[in-house]
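seq as requested:
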Amino acid sequence: YFSKKEYEKAKEVYEKILKSNPKNWEVYGNLGVILKKLNKKEEALKCYLKAIELNPKYAPAYLNLGNFFKE
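struct tokens:
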């Protein structure tokens, strides 16, 4: 859905995955990207931070976080 720019659908899929696997840092990172695209910046920030909390070595979350504050 992301590649088709169907961000609402992608958001629903990621949220569904998190219900069954709430410690999946990659999904939190991806969900943050989706939320940013949907202009839900506070929620996106929380997802980036959650991804880092779950896996402090997950570099894409730091990159997304840096881009978040850069804009």
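DSSP finds four helices and no strands in the chain.
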